[in-house]
Amino acid sequence: MKESTLTYSQAKQELEAIVSAIESGELDVDALTEKVRRASMLIAFCKEKLTKTDEELQKILEQIQ
What we know:
Blueprint: H1 8-24, H2 29-64
Helix pairs in contact: 1-2
EC number: 3.1.11.6
GO biological process, one term: DNA catabolic process
Enzyme class: hydrolase
């Protein structure tokens, strides 16, 4: 899925699937490397999304006061 169309919920769901796959122990080394790489990107995406949301909420709250 392209990052430009990725939502926070989709990223979280994909991360949960990756964690389940890793915990199952059924991934080979090549797949594991790719999954960890993708998880790293998804974590960065989610962190950025949460930071932007927090900043927007702070601005809205400041306007209310």
